[in-house]
Design goal:
By secondary structure, the chain is an alpha/beta fold. Among the domains are: 107 residues, Alpha-Beta Plaits, CATH 3.30.70.2190; 90 residues, Orthogonal Bundle (Fumarate Reductase Iron-sulfur Protein, Chain B, domain 2); 181 residues, no CATH class; 106 residues, Rossmann fold. A seven-stranded antiparallel beta sheet has the order 15-12-14-13-17-18-16, sandwiched between helices. Strands 5-6-10-8-9 form a five-stranded antiparallel beta sheet. A four-stranded mixed beta sheet has the order 1-2-4-3, sandwiched between helices. α39 links the parallel β26 and β27. α18 packs antiparallel against α19, α26 crosses α27 and α29 crosses α40. It is globular and about 90 Å long. The model has no long low-confidence stretch (mean pLDDT 94).
Length: 931
């Protein structure tokens, strides 16, 4: 660490908690990685939780002249979220929001994920304007700092044009809240020189007609190259100029502490169509005509893009090759208007030679697969790239009337420089094209080939066509050397003076957006060494992080892969042997032991990488496979032993007092982590009594061990008892398999890599279910999410008899049981959708059940609770971390609903609200529907 950085850290001691000043080498590598193809390792990583802390950090940086880079989610693609100095990460304290003017505006802190903002706005029929493909992962700070847009956003609904106000902390520590008259008045007085400087720059631009016209032309296009000089033309007040210059400034002019958006309608009625063409020219001419039609999105895909996803849509793309395609969406506030708009679009399309037209469909089951493959085009190259190569996505804009020529020119460049895998796709109405290809950076000749391509690309786009080198992904490092080429010396000089006005010491994100080094885009290129076939296709985009319960506790899936790649790269380097040994010891906890291994990362990953599978493999085989097999064979005794142990736990609580027992358990867990930390409320269920129901429809219930051993929230009866009552009330005659107390789906053994025992348990369950269901004639109700997932996945893999009719609980309850019940609604319930239910595709049905039980449903906002089988007991800190924000979200709820007994234990322990299974709530609030 440099002397300046040492002094910087010393200055922060006592100002920030020590655990949030991170200098550990492994963590600096892991936390310093973003989605770009560049690699810089910060000297220091900080987590800040408040504006006061940001001001403290800025003061120390000014004093020591060290650079600061602020980061929200790290999904940026152009190298603007990395640093070799100080990286400042947003902690949990930046997730606030406020709905304003009945949803017409929303006030957001920079740590809010974009999709979360839209979820809050959904009841008002509104959304934020920007809609980047990464909206489920990226955060408001990055969306605004990059002026990100997306498929439907265009140039009209981006952050610049929907900005209602912001709160910023400048490099000198001063604060401006543009929505607060007192703040604005104070800022005008304290920063008169800065505002006068902006006014003078605006006057200069107005006085140069050629420059002014260039700016207007550039911003008729999608453009995020350099600073938003249109702010100097669009506004008269320097306060407005400043606030709009900060949008798209990539953290180089100030820290965005809050952004207020004017929202846009989220029309409930939509339809999509896929159009295929035999010539690129016909496709692009169709785009020009659709610009005047009532469409909300038109996405272009070239021939290679279509070929890359042909296996995902074989019925449409598998028969023959097409030159190009358009994915068109129409949205409207009513079904009648939607039909009118579709008719108008069809009339426009009638004049063009379409090779194939799917017709417009308003059925989500039809159009969602089309949009899924369009969104998957970026990683499509990543999934097939050669080992050791990386993925680059460039983002350029042509004037729409030059789109066909622009596409042809780009295709020619890739043929010329030998990037045969390159795809072209993008937002056709804006002339905005994304270029995805897989260069290698592991040899000087490959770097030079990339240099030559970029030089030619800049000449084609910026010079020959007068387009924009960056349409929506931000300038970053990869286009910083070419900003002057696009804007000319006069425009570039204005940008340099803007930077000098707002950050005279150059401490904010140095090297990004403006950079005097003509080769900066060729330096610090990220290595992508082979690590393990399970994760080698990872492009480090970070989409997985929002679903990971360990993110911010230890490492996220992306960070686990980054570190494992480094460990593998060091494997044959004797100079790094000692460091590798030290890292491996740390990785056992940070990477392997603290991974929930539920696979939710794969559900968010564009190429389906399950980092948990790698962590599970790295744990190695079971340490006691023979014991595991014996336990699987005698699982009835295991269940009885668990129940007996819970009786002992209850007895100890009565003898010692619950509070004292909890303290003793915590002390023992800290001293010997293998001792589980048990919730004090755990108790055994009373023996189950099941009486046959004459005349009812037979259904087999597979009783999971948690639901038959553990008592529910009443402390006496199992949730299985509630399940049986609900099924009976709905006219079913539930039955249990013979010797059900000894059955297990095998998941407890599989999670410990005792696969022989797991398979044996699965085989016994298969035989029992076949017998109970009369060889598959009767439906089988799976009463617990994780066990249901295990059985359904096993059947899909051929390990369970195909005749078995397996039904996940939410699906059976929603489709078969709910129509037969009369429900009374409670006011407000919390809902947690377990990851096992999400992976089965049953989240919508569980939400519908919750909606039938409550007037208002508040979701936990957590993709995975981190309980993960028994990990909630053996490593409860993971579960607690994953649920740290849930209590604040569920204020006013009378109870919680879920569909996994173990998840409910963790939620009830750490979220401050009792969670029960959905069957328990149906039992409480239902009567037979006799109509």
């Amino acid at each position: 660490m440099s002397t300046a950085h040492q002094r910087f850290c010393q200055a922060l001691q006592g100002q920030l908690p020590a655990q949030r000043i991170i200098t550990d080498p492994m963590l600096r590598l892991a936390l310093g990685t973003d989605a770009s193809f560049y690699r810089l390792i910060p000297e220091v990583v900080l987590r800040v939780e408040s504006e006061a802390e940001v001001q403290t950090v800025l003061a120390a940086a000014r004093a020591e002249q060290v650079g600061l880079t602020f980061r929200a989610a790290g999904t940026s693609l152009s190298g603007q979220a990395i640093s070799d100095s100080v990286l400042v990460l947003l902690g949990d304290g930046w997730g606030g929001h406020q709905i304003l003017r009945e949803g017409a505006e929303i006030r957001l802190q920079p740590g809010v994920i974009g999709q979360q903002a839209n979820d809050w706005l959904r009841p008002y029929g509104r959304k934020i304007g920007p809609d980047p493909a990464s909206i489920a992962s990226c955060k408001i700070g990055g969306i605004a700092a990059n002026n990100a847009s997306g498929m439907c956003c265009g140039t009209r609904d981006n952050s610049y044009h929907t900005l209602a106000g912001l709160r910023v902390i400048l490099a000198d520590g001063s604060v401006l809240d543009t929505t607060d008259a007192a703040s604005v008045a104070a800022f005008r007085q304290q920063q008169a020189g800065l505002l006068a400087g902006l006014r003078a720059l605006a006057d200069e631009v107005h006085a140069q007609p050629a420059l002014a016209e260039r700016i207007r032309h550039k911003y008729r296009l999608k453009n995020t190259t350099g600073y938003g000089l249109n702010a100097l033309l669009d506004f008269d007040d320097p306060i407005d100029m400043l606030s709009h210059l900060l949008i798209g400034s990539e953290g180089t002019l100030g820290f965005l502490a809050r952004v207020d958006y004017r929202t846009v309608p989220e029309h409930p009625h939509k339809a999509s169509a896929l159009l295929l063409f035999d010539t690129l020219a016909a496709c692009c001419h169709t785009v020009s005509a659709l610009a005047n039609a009532p469409v909300s999105a038109v996405e272009l895909m070239d021939a290679k893009s279509l070929a890359a996803v042909a296996d995902k849509l074989p019925e449409l793309l598998g028969e023959r090759a097409y030159a190009a395609g358009l994915l068109v969406e129409v949205r409207a506030p009513s079904a009648a208007l939607l039909a009118e708009q579709i008719a108008a679009v069809e009339q426009t399309l009638a004049a063009f030679p379409l090779a194939r037209h799917t017709g417009f469909s308003s059925e989500a089951s039809d159009y969602e697969p089309w949009w899924a493959v369009r969104k998957g085009l970026f990683p499509a190259v990543g999934a097939v790239r050669t080992l050791g190569s990386t993925v680059v996505i460039e983002d350029v804009t042509f004037p729409v009337d030059k789109l066909a020529e622009g596409v042809a020119g780009l295709q020619g460049l890739f043929a010329r420089f030998g990037y045969a895998e390159a795809l072209l796709f993008g937002h056709a109405l804006a002339g905005n094209l994304h270029i995805v290809f897989a260069p290698r950076f592991d040899a000087p000749a490959e770097v030079e080939r990339y240099r030559a391509l970029m030089d030619a690309l800049v000449q084609l786009v910026a010079v020959e066509f007068g387009g924009a080198l960056k349409g929506e992904h931000g300038t970053g490092r990869n286009m910083a050397p070419f900003v002057a080429t696009e804007w000319g010396a006069d425009g570039y000089a204005i940008m340099q003076r803007i930077k000098a006005l707002l950050d005279p010491k150059g401490i904010l994100n140095p090297g990004v957006l403006l950079n005097a080094d003509p080769d900066i885009h060729l330096k610090h290129l990220k290595p992508m060494p082979a690590a393990n076939p399970l994760v080698d296709k990872c492009i480090e985009c970070g989409f997985c992080e929002a679903a990971c319960p360990a993110h911010g506790y230890t490492l996220s899936p992306r960070q686990r892969i980054v570190v494992w790649r480094q460990l593998q790269a060091w494997r044959n380097d004797p100079q790094q042997a000692k460091e590798r040994t030290r890292w491996l010891a740390q990785y056992r906890q940070r990477g392997i032991a603290s991974c929930a291994a539920t696979g939710m990362c794969a559900s968010r990953c564009p190429v389906g990488i399950d980092t948990g599978a790698l962590m599970q493999a790295l744990r190695g085989p079971s340490r006691a496979p023979l014991l595991a097999s014996q336990l699987a064979q005698q699982y009835r005794l295991v269940s009885a032993g668990a129940r007996l142990g819970l009786h002992g736990w209850q007895w100890a609580g009565r003898l010692l007092g619950r509070a004292r027992l909890a303290r003793l358990n915590q002390a023992a867990h800290r001293r010997w982590p293998t001792i589980p930390l048990l919730p004090i409320t755990l108790s055994p269920a009373q023996p189950l009594k099941l009486s046959p129901v004459p005349g009812g429809e037979p259904v087999v219930v597979f009783p999971s061990c948690p639901n038959r051993v553990l008592a529910g929230s009443d402390g006496q009866h199992s949730e299985l008892a509630a399940t049986l009552r609900v099924l009976t009330r709905a006219g079913f005659s539930p039955r249990l398999p013979e010797q059900y107390a000894g059955l297990c789906c095998g998941q407890p053994f599989a999670s410990k890599n005792a696969h022989v025992a797991a398979d044996a348990a699965l085989a016994r369950s298969n035989a029992a279910l076949l017998a109970a269901s009369e060889q598959g004639r009767l439906p089988i109700y799976l009463d617990n999410g994780p066990c249901g997932l295990r059985l359904i996945a096993a059947q899909q893999a051929g390990q369970l008899d195909a005749r078995l009719q397996l039904h996940a609980a939410p699906s059976f309850l929603y489709r078969q049981v709910l129509p037969r019940l009369a429900l009374r609604k409670t006011a407000r319930l919390a809902l947690h959708v377990p990851c096992s239910i999400s992976k089965q595709g049953g989240a919508g049905e569980l939400r519908a059940l919750a909606g039938a039980l409550a007037e208002q449903v508040v979701e936990s906002g957590v993709a995975c609770c981190g309980f993960a089988g028994d990990k909630g007991l053996s490593q409860p800190e993971l579960n607690q971390h994953a649920l740290r924000e849930v209590a604040a979200r569920q204020q006013g709820c009378s109870g919680g609903i879920s569909a996994s007994r173990t998840c409910q234990i963790g939620l009830s322990t750490h979220a401050g609200l009792v969670y029960d299974g959905v069957e328990v709530w149906l039992d409480r609030l239902s009567a037979p529907n006799l109509s």
